[in-house]
Design goal:
The chain is mostly helical. The protein contains 2 helices and no strands. One of its GO terms (biological process) is DNA-templated DNA replication.
Amino acid sequence: MCRCERSVTGGFPPVEGVSCCTAEELFVETIAKDAYVYAQQGKRKTLQRKDLDNAIEAIDEFAFLEGTLD
């Protein structure tokens, strides 16, 4: 993801690039953990789109994502 940032150049990204990547990683980790709860309720170990949809609908922090997977 850092390579897509135009501000990231050379072998080592600047602090802004690292902060951006860290935030992206934390976001993906958070939504995956919340979606995994719904997968476990369905007695599955693999996340499905409906698990992400359920997490987005149920958790207020993900309200900005509503309708993005349609």
